[in-house]
Amino acid sequence: MPKVPLRAALAALLTLTALTAPAAYADESTAVKVTVNARAALATVPETGLGTNHAIWDTNLGTDQTADLLKDAGMKLLRYPGGSYSDIYHWATHTAPGGYVAPNTDFDTFMRGVRRTGAQPMVTANYGTGTAEEAAGWVREANIVKKYGVKYWEIGNENYGNGHYGSAWEADDHADKSPNEYARHVVAYADAMKAVDPTIKIGAVLTTPANWPDAITAEGDSGSWNKVVLSAAGPKIDFVILHWYPGALDRNGHVPDMIQLTRDQIAKYAGPGSERIGIAMTEFNTGSSSNGSTTQPGALAAADAYASLLANGVFTVDWWNVHNGIGTVTEVEGHTDYGDFGLLSSGSCTSDGTVCEPALNTPFAPYYALQMVSKFARPGDRFIRAATDQPKVTAHAARRPNGDLAVLMINTSSDTSYPVQLAYSGFTPAAGAPTVLSHTNGATAITTTTSGTATTQTLPPLSLTTVVLKPSSVQAGRPGTPGQPTVSAVTDRTATITWPAAKPGTRPIAKYEVHRQNGAITEQLGETSTTTLTVHNLKPGTRYTVNVIARDTGGATSDPSPPLTFTTGTPATSSCSVKLTIQTDWASGYVASIDITNHGAPLNGWTLAFTWPRTWQSLGSGWSAVWTQTGSDVKAANEPANPSLATDATTTIGYVGNYSGPNVLPSVFTLNGTVCTTE
């Protein structure tokens, strides 16, 4: 996405007020049920989890006030030199031909602010108009000469936006603008930069699943951007780079599939050892000025997205931007929304001077949202599963190393205050009122109180609420946590799971239990006295996330292992087989063909059936069969004039599929009720 700095002059503040109706209260009988499962572990909160972007066109990049505000918000990573400017910026001369470079924004000034903030830096090397030698020189200056210890280095920014797919906003002087050329240079950059400092981590730009131009194969390419880049540069990189501007405020349900599909691509294309490759979301914003980019709706979506992305293993999520500038001014939920994608006010005005932002560095609502996330989930905490039964309320939870538990609840209703009832599995809260942190619509700070109980709270409209709980007791001598599980021999119905042994506590370990996550509920798949278990009775084509728990001879249990996610296949042999081929994809829909082969007795009439994996998928049209869709279920029946399918005969049908989120393809097909082998 192109980034254009807005540098309007400071002017007087115009205060807009609106009358708001009193909040409605949901009846106690309809209290929202919040379920928290301490046995269902997700990712550990990384040191670099909360981040933001700094831009060289921001006059306030290096000020102490800005650094102190970022520190108070809990920012742990700062990215430089700023979006698309990265591909025109030359660090040695501190110039960006064709762009504006503000005074006092050079690399040393940035690093001074990083240190004052207490964060780590991430630097984007110039791919568009730079060279590998220039990037290596920057590494030398940063880490050898200045001893800054910059660990994370990106190669370019949104380089798929160079015109190769039709739309051009990113500078790229290379005659060849293909993903293959980008990958070739990533290898050269990585070699040159690591020759200077072999400890650094190199990141390559990918497209984000279901976001343009993801999945598109341009003329002359051997595959999509991600396939080509990972196949060629995978062995040389340490992390991949995603950007996400969802626009709508209800897209956080896309996160698990977005990240899993990225991991699947890394595993498929990046070569041996690809599990080392991390995922960084180096630009994120709710991206919707009409829905509240500086007011509470955008803040609620931001907190939800940060928690969701980090819980799914992204090692940094970086807000765009610290300062950005006034945009389209609207009224959102009783407050002026300035259409500004910054965390902090730039103090800028509209071009006609009729509306000005608050004073420079005044925090906008998303600032408090990220501050709340930093208080809810601290580095070293482990996310655990949480869920609610009310669509207007979302919940996240994290377990701290000392045994405490924090629950973040987000009420997106504009007018209803919800009572909630919290239930816990694998955790017993201490008696007494817990610590409660809250941020409400229009508030200019997070309040901290001791109120309610561990099982009952009330969520104001448009609010963020974090409840911090202590356990009723700390059990000494518990088993240690089992190590990261791995999976092998996955079939349609079975999988073998193996894990490093847990360290015994005061008593020997009696057994290990394997638990499957099913929302915020876990179900035990089996147990064993060893460190390997083959689980049975699985469903074909199903994604499973499991944790391992150790139990000692006295019944005490460990904390859950890190999560393992795998997907079952289809039968190795069947009376039918199906091959799904994507012929073309345009990032919101695709054309597919399906080859159906009958390995059984001749058929006089047949129906192929499958179910869309996600609610945002649908059938557009189909051919060579009679196609119907009911709910998420799709059927393709033989055309009346051609009902027969002989033994070992193959027929080909096709369809157009539509999607508005990560496109998890159907993988389980039945022919006349029999599950087919999917090739």
Automatic annotation (TrEMBL):
It holds the Pfam family CBM_2. Residues 481-571 form the Fibronectin type-III domain. Residues 1-26 form the signal peptide. InterPro entries: CBD2, CBM2/CBM3_carb-bd_dom_sf, CBM2_carb-bd_dom_sf, FN3_dom, FN3_sf, GH, Glyco_hydro_b, Ig-like_fold. Keywords: Carbohydrate metabolism, Glycosidase, Hydrolase, Polysaccharide degradation, Signal. SUPFAM superfamilies: (Trans)glycosidases, Carbohydrate-binding domain, Fibronectin type III. It comes from the Bacteria. Residues 569-679 form the CBM2 domain. This is Alpha-L-arabinofuranosidase. It comes from Nonomuraea composti.
